[in-house]
Write a structure and sequence with these properties.
The complex is a heterotrimer of chains A (213), B (263) and C (475). By secondary structure, chain B is of the alpha/beta class. Chain B has helices at 25-30, 32-44, 59-63, 67-81, 92-101, 111-121, 126-133, 153-159, 163-170, 193-196, 198-214, 225-237, 247-251; strands at 5-6, 18-21, 48-51, 86-89, 123-125, 142-150, 173-177, 219-222, 243-246. In chain B, α12 (225-237) links the parallel β8 and β9. In chain B, α4 packs across α6 (111-121), α5 runs parallel beside α8 and α11 (198-214) crosses α12 (225-237). Chain C is of the alpha/beta class. Classes of the chains: A alpha/beta (213), B alpha/beta (263), C alpha/beta (475). The complex binds iron/sulfur cluster (SF4).
Amino acid sequence: MSSSAAARDSILQAIRRARAGADAVPDAPPAYRTPAALLGGIEQFCAYAGEEAATSEHVGRMEDVPPAVLRYVTGQGLAMRVVVAADLDLDAAVWAAAQPLQITGGPVERDGDTLVTGCYAGVAEAGALIMLSSSGVPNEAKFLAATHIAAVRAVDILPTFEALWTRLRGDFTDRWPRTMNWIVGPSRTADLGVPSKLGAHGPARVHIIIIDA
Amino acid sequence: MSDTTTATNDSGARPRGRVALFVTCLVDLYRPEIGFAAVQLLERAGFVVEVPRQGCCGQPNFNSGDRAGAGKIASRVIDRFAPFDYVVAPSGSCAAMLRVHYPGLFSAGSEARRAAARLAEKTFELTSFLYDIAGLREVAAELDGVVTYHDGCSGLRELGVARQPRELLKSISGIELREMNQPDACCGFGGLFCMKYPEISERITGSKVRDILATDADYLVAGDLGCLLQMAGTLERNGHAVKAVHVAEVLAGMIGPDRSADH
Amino acid sequence: METTSRQFRQLSRHALEQATLQHSLDGVREIMPRIRAAALAERGDFDALCDRARDIRERTLRQLDSYLEAFERRVQAAGGTVHWAATGEEACRIVAQICRDAGAERLIKSKSMVTEEIELNAALERDGFTVTETDLGEYIIQLRGEKPSHILAPSLHVTLDEVAETFHQHHDIERSGPLTNATEMLAEARSIMRDKFLQADVGITGANFLVAETGAAVIVTNEGNADLTASLPDTHIVVTGIEKAVPTLDDVGVLLRVLARSAIGERLSNYTTFVHGPRRDGEASGPANYHVVLVDNGRSEMLGTEFQDMLRCIRCSACLNHCPVYTAIGGHAYGSVYSGPMGAVLTPAFAGLPAAAHLPNASTFCGRCEAVCPVRIPLPSLLRRWRQRELNARPVMDGQRFGLGLWRWLNHWPPAYSLAIRCAARVLRRLSVPGRGGQRWIRRLPLLGAAWTDCRDLPAPPGRTFQDEWRRRRS
Ligand code: SF4
């Protein structure tokens, strides 16, 4: 028996010993329900993301994303080159509309790159973007880029964590995505005094494009 | 009871009940006037006040880990105070000792535990008794000055005393109640703590004093003499003129420029 | 667990003398309660959430074995390996072996209190590995060879100037002038850290929660360093305590809601990562090897004891931020990686009561910690239980035991009590001198009383006790 297996036995035994004779554990209550007064939608999502220093805008359709990216990149004075993740369901022809923006499929290499991704969902109660690992996007890209532009469909913005769990359970039943990353605004650190400084390791800018249709 | 002295209710109406004053050992020793102020407030509210012979509530033992000793002291207090309708203490921390901690000192299901629970139920901190039980909403007192109120930790967190003293203080004519930053922060007293770790205690009180001074208040008011001794001693040592007074003294109208706190 | 808690007195005196530390602690005292209160105000259901959070943690602890086993099955099914370590040394050995098997040299780490507790870095460095902390605060103290002074903000005690100095000492900084502001220092750290991330062979993280339902290790950060640590190297090792299990995703949701609000006054930390296992076929990136090391190190021993409630702790640090003692002396004075009220309960459990006896005693019992604890741990009661054990372990002729015994005796004999109080009243009155406004003060007391008058004056009693005066007036 390896030492880890021996440890496993001794730990589990110690736990069971401690439990012995204790009262039966009551059943778990039904899932938590957020009071109606606190439930929010897209507006809450944008407001809360905004308080965490993310910016957001609305566009009508998926095809409107490239021009919005171009506007944002130009407005921020960023390099005219963006890495577009494969999870964004847009073909090259549509991106042509965003010229002179240079489009690449990655990877994110330089500290300063701008990354454009899709998004599994948004959660309004925290202003959080919910990203899943997938075959298309190297997971680390979301944390290496200096600017992250995420496109999320309005219908995917859920009010609460509970709504997200329901959706995840429906989509994945048993085989959970390898990683799920929740992102609220830019990376920051509080270790160099108050207020927090943006851009600790990951993006210093997070921009959300909400697709209404 | 031979060692219990009884006062008559001076409002003339039928007494609303017999209150035993748990005066606390600090008031007994350091500032008897607080005890008299409490008696006056209770009598004016229509209660008959008695003072059974008494000592400490046992907190020093309890908080030092001497449960057995605390239990012995508690039994004594329970015996002495059981006959009354109410037990009232001009201290949140001693009232909390009786109300919150006494029952747990005795084994579950025992008669002693039941007796402790009965006592706990009828024990109150002075201002919460006046406000919540006696229904008092204003007091007949005057004070021309700015006061700031410090929440004693046990009273606030174990008994929920916060609104009652403030409402009653605000009813005093001429008074201005000015909140300090973090009135709920500990003053650094902590019972024996201030003797065991005096430097840390001093530092905690230092922050508290800064918050008190920032209000520019004339009086620092609190409901616990322990906190008051700690803060008064620090204010005095550092030459600050703010007067530290007990809420009972203020409510009873014993505080004012012409009424010296020292007797 | 190694501690220097025996030197609490010296360490706290030292801390009180350090002006820059005191300045940082003032900041904690002022800011943290305010931002927490603001974050709570928005959630009308915060109390209900805390009750839930307490129940979830309580329920988990009472069936910890089955949740850990369920978690283990899930991780294994996803292709990961779960290791069990009864002690800190065992955990360190397991991690080192994984690193050796991976042929690793360079390791990166994201902040984890468990790894501080078991002193993992020191063990790995002894084994020849290079370890780099990637949480900025943790990185700063690593360079300085210090221990964390706050469970969430480990470099709280380090000033900006000191950070600049530290970077100059340890980095090959090409620029001519010194780093002068936080922005420059952050840029410097970011660029150094980039290389470390890209070159690392193994990434080590902690975990805030282990979800039995899905097998996820949930990791919360603000910097995003844990995400990089878990994504870039070829091997990811999660090292965490066995008590971190929670039953379901629903439970994680409740705990996350109270965690960030209590910790930093935010709705949610910036990054929350759920890791389920190693890279899958067809995935563009991710670690090929995934390990979870479950550390006991004294935790199972606390189960079923009067200290079990402490295992509910989610390490939010609210109790530190609201503690008058912590905000007076900071974390280092506790001599333990766990400081503040939670540290004062945990350290005696992990390091033994004799080594840490000061910690439970150095509390005013103000109860603010319990009031802000999101999982409602009765911290003062737990501290009081340690005091009880400590008192009982003292010799019979110990001064404190004697004093308490005497007090108990006096309170049992009213005549003796009255006499004692009467004497005290007169003696104290004698010792007093006139002060302002007609009040008399005691400026100096002998013997034990000096502990009072060294720091403050003592108002003089009138010399006659309330009880005597009452009986005189009423007779
Ligand atoms: S004891 Fe409670 S308040 Fe303190 S860190 Fe743990 S969970 Fe937070």
